[in-house]
Amino acid sequence: NVTVEAPDGLRANVSSAVNGWLDSGFWKLTKRNNILFFSPDELASQLAKQFPKLEAIKISKDLPHALIISAGERKPIGILCLADERCFYFDKTGIAFSETQPSSGFLILNIIDQRSRELKLGDEVIVQDWLSNITKAKELLAKLDVNVSEFVIPADSFDEFYAKTSEGWRILFSNATDIEKQISALTIFLKEKITPSQRAGLQYIDLRIQDRIYYK
Which stretches does DSSP call E strand in 64-141? Predict the structure, then answer.
């Protein structure tokens, strides 16, 4: 007997996949007939690959003949688009779990990765330090009332990215320098070093070099 606790839209398919997995094998040596000995981790790994939208998959045995599978559904915090224009929803862990269309809104985190690379469902959209820095930059910029439409990783980037603001200018960042320090420098610059008319005519502010700000 298999009990599946999963989001409504996935429950039937997950249940079918689990039963198919349990029935696989040779002759009568199926996993269903050997519930004591099969690996829950193996089944969880299989389900994660087959259903990228699932998160926190837990499998427990209710001996002698029952299994309980529980899983949640990943929630999108952002969209990443590649140079080939394929776009993916990703969750707080950075996992790509569903293809989607580009977004131009300010509420969700939008990342454009112009580097040539492959990405498939279940992969990390970008490595964790990049995602952490970009997420932190969006959060801190919002506190400055600087709205960002998207973050862009240039095609030739090694450790740099930039933010495109709703005002039309860019903010250049580097992963090699602490993001909070870069935003702190930006805060002082916007409040004390530039006039409203100068801000209106900005093209970019470059924060990539520690203790230096360049702008045009």
Answer: 66-73, 78-82, 87-90, 96-100, 109-113
